[in-house]
Structure formats: structure tokens, C-alpha cells
Amino acid sequence: MAILSILLTKGNYNNMLTLSTIVTGAIVDDYEVKIFVMDDAVWAFKKDAIGTELEIHSHDAAFKSALEAAQKKEGMIVPWWDMLEDLKDMGEITITLCSLMCDIAELKKEDFSDLVDTLAGIGSFMGDLYDADKVISI
Length: 138
Description:
Blueprint: E1 3-8, H1 13-28, E2 32-37, H2 41-44, H3 61-72, H4 80-90, E3 93-98, H5 99-104, E4 118-120, H6 122-131, E5 134-137
Parallel strand pairs: 1-2, 1-5, 2-3, 3-4
């Protein structure tokens, strides 16, 4: 099984949708996916944040409008947290949050969604790179 390692640094809704879409393709192609989350993306996984950020960001008004309309159609755009939960049931996905970001904000593992597997330092991500067949930064 090939391994895809993803570095996620921005936690806005667009990036989270991009993450879940890429992970979908990887799971369909039978990849093991290892996601290392750092910087402000860590906060997207907080229990009290899941489900609250739905704003599409775009410099193109027509694109933003089209995506916002698609969000309102049932089943058109699945929220990223639901998609990742379903994907974790379908394949091997590990989500690791940067422990330094958590320490800075005095956050513990129990402050985060059940999607999160562990908290670890950047060395964890660096170690994953040795085994990764592909690496993506979002």
C-alpha cells in the first residue's frame, strides 16, 4: 500500500474541503494517508469549531456564489468533517496535530474532535516523509 503524507497549515473551509477531496482520491486509490496538522489548521479540529466554519473564500465572486449555492443543495458538498469521518471508516487515515501549537494554546487531545488520532511534534511528520510515496502541502 502506498503512503500519502499531507501537511495541512491553513484551517479555512476551502482548505479543509481540499483536504477531504484529496483524501477521498487517495483512499479510492488504496493509499494510506497520514495528515500532519499545524499552524491555524489545528483549531479547525477543535470540538467547538467543527461545524461552525462554512464560509467559502474566493477572490472570484461568481465562483464563491456557485459554491455557496452548491452547499445549500443536499448531498452536493459534504462538510469536510463528515467526509473525513466516513473516509476513516473506509481506509487507513491518521490525523496528527502539532503538539507545539496545542501547547501554545494550552489545548489537550480531549479538546479536539474524535477525528484526531494523536498530538505530536514536527519530528513525527519528518519521520513520515521517509516512508511516504507522495507528499502534499495544503
